[in-house]
Amino acid sequence: MRNPSFLLPLLLMAGCAAADAEPQSSDNALSRMLAGRTAGTPENCVRIEPSQSLNAIGTGTIVYGSGRTIWHVRLRGSCPSIRRLDTLLVEPTGSQYCRGDHVRSIDPPSRIPGPVCVIESFVPHTRPGGP
What we know:
Layout: H1 7-34, E1 38-39, E2 45-47, E3 54-58, E4 61-64, E5 69-75, E6 87-91, E7 96-98, E8 102-106, E9 117-126
Antiparallel strand pairs: 1-9, 2-7, 3-4, 4-5, 5-9, 6-8, 8-9
């Protein structure tokens, strides 16, 4: 049988390419989602709407809202534990999501919460015109 050690560098390169692909795809997803919208001044808090939830669209990238205004949620530092389509556990301190609130992703197979990520601000991106 041949020694398959020549495959190791190829596998490592493939793994690195896959790891690098998600941040680029999350940037693309965010760009598409916010296309045609105007960014506003970052805010410290937004009202919790029962019909809305924080949504992970990529590594460390979270959005909130729909319709006329979508909020890009900025996190303190990087937060690689949050990945596209993760279920998020949010720990608000009141009736609003605010700066300093904790967000964690839930690992689907084990249902174990990941590391704490801290909300820095909410940047509104508003579509001109009606709802």
